[in-house]
Design brief:
single chain, 238 residues, alpha/beta, Rossmann fold, five-stranded mixed barrel, 7 helices, EC 2.4.2.3
Length: 238
């Protein structure tokens, strides 16, 4: 594994594990490292995008923030996959449910990720590419949810470039197509993984329901998000 710095990651000689968990918020990466990992070292602080490596039940795992949006996770995940030999990235974060029967704090897993971004145009494909999660990781999180008795919703999610959309009807159209929820990163992560020949998965906690208008407070979100972390961490041993 290379420990040479890239423009956005400088591990300063520290190791980066083959499995990386990527929350959007670098402070959440720090929380995961301090709460769940043993023998923790920090491998990145460039632009305050904190990254840590430690062990979870004896397996080496890293956790690093991705920032918000497709351009940000596109950069960090690309560098991890292509310059640091990372073999799997599991995105963990919040999601807005697009189906009215999905309550707050339930967990959504993105089997695939639609997008309104032009990120996929770079591949110059003669059609519409469908960014898809790793089956191995997807099956692993479903099995882990059964062990932990956690209810999952598995299906298509939307990775949108727009948080405040001027078209207030757009979410209705995505919902009609069965999309479970909207977030802002997974399509780029899945595409980068496919291009690099590695694995990726998105595991999300429902922070608000766009259909019903229900919304979690900041404190409630912090307390509820540990469930998705505890589902994702065991995947490092697969």
């Amino acid at each position: 594994m290379s420990t040479k710095a890239t423009p956005h990651i400088n591990p300063r000689g520290e190791e980066i594990a083959e499995t990386v968990l990527m929350p959007g918020d670098p402070l959440r990466a720090k929380f995961i490292a301090e709460t769940y990992l043993d023998d923790v070292v920090q491998f990145n602080e460039v632009r305050n995008m904190l990254g840590f490596t430690g062990t979870y039940n004896g397996t080496m795992v890293s956790v690093m923030g991705s920032g918000m949006g497709i351009p940000s996770i596109g950069i960090y995940s690309y560098e991890l996959m292509n310059f640091f030999d990372v073999k799997r990235i599991i995105r963990i974060g919040s999601i807005g449910a697009l189906q009215k029967d999905i309550p707050l704090y339930d967990v959504i897993v993105g089997a695939s990720a639609s997008t309104d971004s032009n990120y996929l145009d770079q591949y110059n494909l003669p059609g519409t590419y469908a960014p898809t999660a790793s089956w191995k990781l997807l099956k692993g999180v479903v099995d882990e949810a059964e062990r932990q008795d956690v209810r999952l919703h598995v299906g298509n999610v939307l990775s949108s470039d727009v948080f405040y959309n001027a078209d207030e009807t757009v979410n209705d159209r995505w919902a009609r197509m069965g999309v479970l929820g909207v977030e802002m990163e997974s399509a780029a992560l899945y595409a980068n993984a496919a291009y690099a020949g590695v694995e990726a998965l998105g595991v999300f906690t429902v922070s608000d329901n766009i259909v019903t208008g229900e919304r979690a407070t900041a404190d409630e979100r912090q307390n509820a998000f540990t469930q998705m972390m505890e589902l994702a961490l065991p995947l490092a041993a697969l």
